[in-house]
């Protein structure tokens, strides 16, 4: 087992990509700490991981609240003794027509998709520095590495807040890698492309989902959406000691997206 007895915190770990990562880590022997703002889905994810024979802990956490976040990590250290892995996965998208994007739209996206990544890293860094070991994995997006011609029926400008935040996460990854590297902490980033998650169908009809999948699949040279376990496997590489000499890097897990400038 590649993560035997490691304590791994996954923010936004109760659903979608975060749930897949937490589940995969538990399969590799980690204690998966599901940190999510939704208590019901958190409890359900923990039960599912445990039903598969894994170990998991569930915590309701608002990662945009720096003070409460620090208290969460301190309490987790007190109960588990260490934190080995942090996956900064919690995030939000708000796509609106370019000329309709407001200050609250920008603030909501940057608060969760960028500031919370910094808050989590800042809170966990002293623990990892003290133990001279740690793995921080930030989740960016293919939109953080370039632009796309459109977002559904909207023009490219609709992605301005999200793409800007995710691009900043890539730069923050490099800064954190430089800051924490001398203490034995690896910091890397994943930039997912199009993956099928429960959110795919929440605001679309079945016909719209079918068209969405078709269009997005055509953007990748592999001509299909990603599978959740494929992103989880990439996260596992960064979380394991197989990547011990890799830091400050961004890995695109996007099937070969060809629509970016």
Describe this structure in words.
- The structure is a single chain.
- This protein is α/β, with parallel strands linked by helices.
- It has one domain: 3-Layer(aba) Sandwich (Rossmann fold).
- Helix content is 44%, strand content 16%.
- It is globular and about 50 Å long.
- The N and C termini lie far apart (40 Å).
- The mean pLDDT is 94.
Give the topology, please.
Blueprint: E1 7-11, H1 16-27, E2 31-36, H2 39-51, E3 55-60, H3 66-80, E4 85-88, H4 103-131, E5 134-139, E6 150-151, E7 154-155, H5 160-180, E8 185-192, H6 206-218, H7 228-239, E9 250-253
Parallel strand pairs: 1-2, 1-4, 2-3, 4-5, 5-8, 8-9
Antiparallel strand pairs: 6-7
Helix pairs in contact: 1-7, 3-4, 4-5
Average pLDDT across residues?
94
- Biggest sheet, open or closed, and with what strands and sense? 7 strands, parallel
- H/E series, N to C? EHEHEHEHEEEHEHHE
Shape-level CATH architecture? 3-Layer(aba) Sandwich
Q: Note the gap between the termini.
A: 40 Å
Strand order of the main beta sheet, please?
3-2-1-4-5-8-9
How helical, in percent, are the residues?
A: 40-55%
Number of helices: 7
- Count the E strands: 9
Features:
7-stranded parallel β-sheet; Rossmann fold; 44% helix; single chain; 261 residues; 7 helices; alpha/beta; two-stranded antiparallel ribbon
Short structural description:
The protein has seven helices and nine strands, in the order E-H-E-H-E-H-E-H-E-E-E-H-E-H-H-E.
């Amino acid at each position: 087992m590649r993560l035997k007895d490691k304590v791994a915190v996954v923010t936004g770990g109760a659903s979608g990509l975060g749930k897949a990562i937490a589940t995969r880590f538990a399969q590799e022997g980690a204690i998966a700490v599901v940190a999510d703002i939704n208590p019901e889905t958190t409890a359900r994810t923990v039960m599912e991981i445990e039903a598969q024979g894994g170990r998991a802990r569930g915590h309701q956490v608002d990662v945009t609240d720096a003070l409460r976040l620090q208290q969460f990590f301190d309490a987790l250290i007190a109960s588990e003794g260490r934190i080995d892995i942090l996956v900064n996965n919690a995030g939000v998208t708000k796509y609106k027509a370019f000329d309709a994007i407001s200050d609250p739209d920008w603030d909501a996206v940057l608060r969760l998709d960028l500031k919370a990544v910094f808050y989590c890293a800042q809170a966990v860094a002293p623990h990892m520095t003290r133990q001279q070991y740690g793995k921080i994995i930030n989740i960016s997006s293919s939109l953080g590495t370039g632009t796309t011609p459109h977002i559904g029926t909207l023009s490219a400008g609709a992605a301005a807040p999200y793409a800007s935040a995710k691009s900043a996460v890539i730069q923050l990854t490099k800064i954190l890698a430089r800051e924490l590297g001398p203490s034995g902490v690896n910091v890397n980033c994943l930039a997912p492309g199009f993956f099928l998650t429960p959110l795919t169908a929440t605001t679309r009809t079945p016909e719209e989902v079918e068209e969405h999948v078709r269009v997005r699949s055509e953007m990748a040279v592999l001509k299909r959406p990603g599978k959740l376990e494929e992103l989880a496997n990439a996260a596992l590489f960064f979380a394991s000691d197989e990547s011990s000499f890799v830091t400050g890097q961004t890995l695109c897990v996007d099937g070969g997206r060809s629509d970016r400038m």
